[in-house]
Amino acid sequence: MSISAQSITSFSNFKRSGFARGAFALAITAFAAATASPASAGPRPGAYDGNWNVTFTTRAGNCSSTNSAPFAVSGTQVSSAGGGKVTGGVRPNGTLAVNISVGMSHASGTGRLAGNSGAGRWSGVITGDKCSGTWVATRT
């Protein structure tokens, strides 16, 4: 997975611009995408390894309406692939839980991955505003 200068700049300037909300929301979406998948038993450990693009949609709160962000899955770990601090994990059945923080903003997401896609929900405080929504993910 590659990290662009624009992704890094977006997260670096998070507190300074309205775009920061969108960037953070994008990261949240990525997080949520890592947590989404249908409840099925038994894919092998690492079945979800790779880079994922997560698109999140805000359903409540004063945050950007839609954004996307990259994240990485390796084994049972979900990590950042473009800014912010991401911690979380994915189980063999694809269920996921993730936490992300950028500056004073933070969010959590849950969901499920299945094959090359996933979906779930996220919520958090973005630049002081409580927001929540849904996310979808695609393995790239």
Give the total of domains.
Answer: 1
Shape verdict: globular
Q: Taking Cα atoms only, what radius of gyration do you get, to the nearest Å?
A: 14 Å
CATH topology: Lipocalin
In CATH terms, the superfamily is Quinohemoprotein amine dehydrogenase alpha subunit, domain 2
Largest sheet: 8 strands, antiparallel
The largest beta-sheet arranges its strands as 3-2-1-8-7-6-5-4
> Mean of the pLDDT scores?
76
The CA-CA distance between the termini, in Å, is 9 Å
| H/I helix tally | 2
- Number of β-strand runs: 8
> What class would the helix/strand composition place it in?
alpha+beta
Question: What share of residues is helical?
Answer: 10-25%
Query: What series of H and E elements makes up the topology?
Result: HHEEEEEEEE
Question: Can you offer a commentary on this structure?
Answer:
It is a single chain. The protein has about 140 residues and is of the alpha+beta class. The chain has one domain: Quinohemoprotein amine dehydrogenase alpha subunit, domain 2 (Lipocalin, Beta Barrel). The chain contains 2 helices and 8 strands. It has an 8-stranded antiparallel beta sheet, covered by helices on one side. β4 and β5 form a beta hairpin. It starts with a helix and ends with a strand.
